[in-house]
Amino acid sequence: MEYEFPKEKLSLKKGENKIIDFYPLRNKTALSEITVTGKTKAQQVRETPYNVTAIDATKLHNATTDINQVLNRTTGIKIRETGGMGSGFSFSLNGFSGNQVRFFIDGIPMDNLGSSFQINNIPVNLAERIDVYKGVVPISLGADILGGAINIITNPGKKNFIDASYSYGPFNTHRTSVNTSYTTRQGVNFQLSVSQNYSDNNYKVNIEVADLVTGEYIPMRVKRFHDTYHNETVIAKAGLVNKPFADILQAGITLGQNIKDIQTGNRMYEVYGMRMTKGNIIMPSVRYSKNNLFVEGLDFNLNGNCNLGEEQSIDTVPRQYNWLGDYVVNNSSDSRGVKQVLPHYIIIKITTAC
Fold it and tell me: Long-range contact list for 324-331, CB < 8 A, 24+ apart?
């Protein structure tokens, strides 16, 4: 690239020989550098006609945080939690909340995944990108949405990597996450994501403690003694990538469980010492994706999930507690337990785009 060679036209007769010396000359217009520019997938999403914020989650893969905490730093989103780890929360997007905002994972609604797989216990390592749609959403999400949508895009697993993180915090809080993917030269892909969260949530509160004998209330500062939360999740996938017949062809299964103690009712003086909720998720899944299927510009995606999980609310002990953990047996109370079996939703979603 730095030299050019002179050219000379020769005319030789039969049997004639001629020797010519060529000396390369420096090219005054030689290139000093070449710059190749491109756009990431997040940049391409931001430039769509929708009001969307694309969060590049790969920059946070070594952080011990969950999707909820990442979204809470995004403009227009406000998340208010009712307590410590595993507690309920209210999600607001530009003033819209409740069913006005929907959550998706790879375009599949998260409405029926149960309490074991929610944005407040999904580690950020699982996501490659988080798309936050404000107002109008793409038709590919295919849901009745008024205020906006959150779409969590997981890693397609086309590269070999491993991410691991662990953190320890106040109130005996532990967070662990491991996310890995391996693809052979033949295009066989294996993915595994494992995460766990645990906390005693035994922070102190200022409250009036009841004397169970006299009924007198005494102001005190005490610890919450029955508010433990833990959940564990395993996601395993195997399949083919970058094949002539499929960009991604995967089968997988998601396993998870969570147990949450319930410390109080709607009001602080209602103290519980044995009440809890439990949930689990058993969800086989299949995914197929192919761009330029049959013709240029025709993209085909198929996602199928079947959730076999269940949710339980357990309240079977007839005891009246106070904030010191003391209790008396209340024989007049009805022992009760509620078990809610989640409908065995089978979600199959097919989208095509030209």
Answer: 324/209, 324/222, 325/225, 325/226, 325/273, 326/212, 327/212, 327/273, 328/212
Q: How far is CA 20 from the centre of its chain?
A: 71
CA nearest to 288, candidates 194, 101, 156, 174:
156
What tens digit of pLDDT does each residue of 267-291 get? 888 899 999 999 999 999 999 999 8
Tens of pLDDT, residue by residue over 152-195, are 988 776 678 888 888 899 999 999 989 899 999 898 999 999 99
Tokens for 267, please give them. 């009001």
**Domain range for 249:** 39-353
What CATH number has the domain bearing residue 132?
2.170.130.10
204 located within any domain? yes
Tally of domains in the chain: 1
- Please report, for residues 29, 120, 207, 209, 325, the alpha-carbon distance to residue 223 in angstroms, rounded to integers and kept in the order given: 76, 24, 10, 11, 10
192 found inside a domain: yes
Q: Does residue 79 lie in a domain region? A: yes
String of b and e for 270-309 (b: at least 16 CB within 10 Å)?
Answer: ebbbebbbbbbbbbebbbbbbeebeeeeeebbebbbebeb
